[in-house]
Amino acid sequence: MIVKNEEEVLRQCLDSVKDICDEIIIVDTGSTDKTKQIAGEYTDKVMDFKWIDDFSAARNFAFKQATSSYILWLDADDVLQKADQKKFKKLKEDLDESVDAVSMLYHIAFDECGNPTFSYRRNRLVKRDRNFKWIGPVHEYLEVYGNIISSDIAVTHRKRDKSNPNSANDRNLKIYEKRLERGEAFSPRDLFYYANELKDHSFYQKAIIYYREFLATRKGWVEDEIRACINMAACYRMLGNPEKEIEALVLSISYDVPRPEVSCRIGDLYKGRNLFRKAIIWYRLATEIETDDHQGFQQQSYATWYPHLQLCVCYWQAGEMELAEAHNQKAKYYRPHDSQVKYNERFFKEYKEKNS
């Protein structure tokens, strides 16, 4: 792990892995709080690394300290839940030495019941003697190749308290801007993640420029290209330009089959204009299309309860009550306690009683 001012979250992370790892290595990049003190309660391998605005440099330094056969990497606001700890122990017992890396799910957003709503895969466990390297000063990635297997183990991201001044900042944005000031050439990946930082800091017009520059390279990962279109659409939405929003969403389809999120967002635009029949086409597509188990972002709500709940509304507005009720029941399967689902059930019951 590399850390800086993580006293708020570090203990929960280390508690979740202390019994499954043979050694814990923590590299501190300049903490001014109790991070190092807390880390010292779990391991004697706490060391310093002078921060040079380069995440990969820090992570590669941390990897060099490892002595075990495989390396698991985490961030301080990650945890392994009890069930995933058990799966990890089983993986250690059964792992064949021919495996170079193991990808795991990364859950980063959740509904009110704690169910993951936003996930993707990351190569989390890697063979030490392959000497895989981290690449990129910011939004770094671990370059992995060889015999890679997929696991159902999940790493869970625990959000920080937004009232904490260390929970969010413009550090990454500043790193990118310093690189631009130095005249550094951005890779396609740099362009994509810089655009994301701009969007997250509400620089929507500038973000759109860099998303388009990224797409123009035609050298990005397809999942990033699709996400660039979705994020660009979100920028146009914030700028109050629905025509450009739908244009960006449709553009994503040129890279692969429509993602459920894209279909639902197009459906939302038509529903917002009371074009319910057109909205139905897109919401139905979100429920029917099958996508491979790709490595990109996956928001389960757009393929499960959300389109069914919208189809309930659209079919009602189109005068097809039976279909509306049927889709509300399908939404209930995924979210049995959802307030809108329950409201719809009461509405249908009262409507039938009045018209019986």
From TrEMBL:
Pfam families: Glycos_transf_2, TPR_8. It is an enzyme of class 2 (transferase). Transmembrane segments: none annotated. It comes from the Bacteria. This is Glycosyltransferase. Keywords: Glycosyltransferase, Transferase. Residues 1-124 form the Glycosyltransferase 2-like domain. GO terms for molecular function: glycosyltransferase activity. SUPFAM superfamilies: Nucleotide-diphospho-sugar transferases, TPR-like. Its EC number is 2.4.-.-. Gene3D superfamilies: Spore Coat Polysaccharide Biosynthesis Protein SpsA, Chain A, Tetratricopeptide repeat domain.
